[in-house]
């Protein structure tokens, strides 16, 4: 057996007998015999080094490493591609919000259909390749869905096999000692792993949580969606409602129900507004973005109309415009009505404060501060005129 060659060298040692001169010990391993190559050893060493570095970088909840290392890591990841123009990119958790009956679901289904076929919607770029999408429909029943995408329940639209629609199973039984929300999250994850879909559209967030108006309710929901996104490399479009808003004011992040936590935790967001000059028109406005500059702001909104040219209900791009063109203009009658209400309250309750009047008359708690200022101005004007 010649697995090791021992060659005398220049080392000397005393072992209790006579001095022995040892040239060197040069072990020679037969790597091929065990299927081990020099590249295997290098790979193993690199892996051990990475594990060691990862352990050093981990600081409990945080990962800490030099900025250059983060850049090198980022270089290994693909550049996010557009899924719906500058509104939604790959790997983003995006929120689309609007008031009821403005077409959120119509646009969301259209976006999903576009991605499943690999064909862009006119006016909005699609850079990502054709791929499977999961559309979680918690709004429409199957017959309502058919009605939207057929002609009087006939001549149905032909969907691409990449488009998976999901609705709740009314016969499903929740396992004992498991909450509805936990079972829902488990089912959501199972749908992702078994279809291999990387694009999710959730219609809508309210179903995933009974309430998203407060930070307490919204925070766990957004953390769970972010965790799913990171774990499976997902792109998520989640639909949400707006509470009653002042239609004479531009849409802002404050118009999203549960806005603080939802907006803080999402990567991007856009909204649908209804034109007050032409009720058949809708406009799309960017609210938050991270992978691009704000292209569609108040000075450049995308104006669309909802149409059903054949058997597919859809948004059709019309033009670009400014948001103010589509806002409700406060009429003189509106101003006069508010002033009349304030005068009546001052007459019936002479000692009432402007703050108390604002609390009584404010139509939207979310807009109370600006409404309070308006009321205070009218109260001062009325009081000054009566003292002359």
Summarize the structure.
The protein has 388 residues and is an alpha/beta fold.
Strand and helix map with partners:
Elements (H helix, E strand, L loop, with lengths): L5 E8 L6 E6 L12 H20 E2 L2 E2 L3 H9 L6 E3 L3 E2 L3 E6 L5 H14 L15 E5 L4 H7 L14 E4 L13 H16 L3 E5 L1 H4 L6 H18 L2 E7 L17 H7 L2 E7 L6 E8 L12 E7 L6 E8 L10 H17 L5 H8 L6 H19 L2
Parallel strand pairs: 7-11, 7-12, 8-9, 8-10, 10-11
Antiparallel strand pairs: 1-2, 3-4, 5-6, 12-13, 13-14, 14-15
Helix pairs in contact: 7-8, 9-11, 10-11
Please give a structural write-up.
- A hairpin with a 6-residue loop joins strand 14 (301-307) and strand 15 (314-321).
- With 388 residues, the chain is of the alpha/beta class.
- Mean pLDDT is 85; it is low at 1-18.
- Helix 7 packs parallel to helix 8 (259-265), helix 9 crosses helix 11 and helix 10 (354-361) crosses helix 11 (368-386).
- The strands form four sheets. The chain has a nine-stranded mixed beta sheet, with helices on both faces. It has a two-stranded antiparallel sheet with strand order 1-2. The protein has a two-stranded antiparallel sheet with strand order 3-4.
- The protein has three domains: 1-51, no CATH class; 82-326, 3-Layer(aba) Sandwich (Rossmann fold); 332-386.
- It is built from eleven helices and 15 strands.
């Amino acid at each position: 057996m010649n697995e090791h060659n021992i060659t005398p060298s220049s080392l000397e040692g005393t072992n209790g007998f006579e001095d022995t001169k040892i040239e060197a010990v040069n072990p020679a391993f037969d790597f091929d015999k065990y299927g081990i190559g020099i590249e295997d050893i290098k790979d193993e060493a690199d892996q051990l080094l990475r594990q060691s570095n990862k352990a050093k970088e981990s600081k409990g909840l945080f990962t800490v490493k030099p900025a250059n290392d983060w850049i090198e890591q980022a270089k290994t990841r693909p550049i996010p591609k557009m899924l719906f123009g500058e509104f939604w990119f790959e790997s983003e958790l995006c929120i689309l919000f609007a008031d009821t009956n403005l077409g959120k679901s119509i646009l969301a289904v259209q976006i999903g259909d576009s991605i499943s076929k690999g064909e862009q919607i006119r006016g909005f770029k699609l850079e990502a390749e054709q791929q499977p999408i999961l559309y979680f429909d918690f709004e429409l029943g199957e017959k309502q869905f058919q009605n939207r995408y057929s002609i009087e329940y006939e001549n149905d639209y032909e969907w691409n096999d990449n488009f998976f629609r999901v609705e709740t199973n009314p016969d499903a039984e929740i396992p004992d000692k498991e909450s509805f929300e936990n079972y829902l999250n488990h089912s959501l994850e199972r749908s992702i792993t078994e279809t291999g879909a990387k694009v999710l559209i959730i219609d809508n967030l309210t179903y995933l949580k009974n309430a998203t108006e407060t930070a307490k309710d919204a925070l766990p929901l957004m953390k769970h969606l972010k965790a799913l996104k990171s774990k499976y490399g997902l792109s998520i479009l989640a639909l949400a409602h707006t509470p009653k808003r002042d239609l004479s004011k531009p849409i802002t992040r404050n118009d999203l129900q549960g806005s603080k936590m939802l907006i803080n935790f999402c990567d991007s967001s856009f909204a649908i507004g209804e034109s007050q000059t032409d009720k058949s028109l809708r406009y799309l406005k960017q609210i938050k973005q991270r992978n691009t500059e704000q292209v569609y702001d108040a000075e450049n909104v995308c104006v669309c109309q909802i149409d059903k040219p054949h058997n597919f209900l859809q948004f059709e791009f019309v033009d670009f415009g400014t948001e103010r063109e589509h806002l409700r203009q406060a009429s003189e009658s509106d101003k006069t009505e508010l002033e009349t209400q304030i005068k009546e309250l001052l007459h019936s309750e002479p000692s009432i404060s402007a703050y108390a009047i604002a609390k009584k008359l404010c139509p939207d708690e979310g807009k109370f501060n600006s409404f309070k200022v308006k009321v205070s101005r009218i109260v001062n004007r009325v009081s000054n005129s009566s003292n002359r």
